[in-house]
Design brief:
The protein is of the alpha+beta class. It contains five helices and two strands; from the N terminus they run βααβααα. The radius of gyration is 21 Å and the shape is elongated.
């Protein structure tokens, strides 16, 4: 996360990087919630092409006019300091671990590679 993307906690208005209350932790949470709308025309076009190509989805994806099945229509990002995360019972999100899809963390992965001298 870049400096210009940092801001105060969206719940307590304290700096997310300095509000540790125990003086030991420097982590915070970023939650992104998106609302999406299915692109029915694009889905139907791709399905129709797949039927025309004998069910071959790979060929249909090449000839389809759009690769998007949905469009983001609303998005909200929350920055939450760790104390607010715990106090406001966002622990529920931790209970969801193992569900959904884990997204890559290129920034963290790059730091690990750099600290190991290029070895993985």
């Amino acid at each position: 996360m870049r400096y210009d993307q940092m801001r105060k906690c969206d719940f307590c208005d304290s700096p997310v990087s300095g509000n540790t209350r125990d003086g030991k932790r420097l982590d915070f949470h970023r939650v992104v919630v998106e609302r999406l709308l299915l692109d029915v025309q694009s889905i139907n076009a791709r399905a129709g092409l797949a039927v025309m190509f004998g069910g071959n989805e790979a060929i249909a994806s090449v000839f389809a006019p759009s690769g998007n099945a949905a469009t983001v229509v609303a998005s909200r990002e929350l920055l939450i300091c760790d104390p607010c995360w715990i106090e406001r019972e966002f622990q529920v999100l931790h209970d969801l671990e193992g569900r959904g899809r884990e997204l890559p963390t290129p920034e963290a992965d790059a730091r690990v590679v750099r600290k190991m001298g290029g070895r993985t």
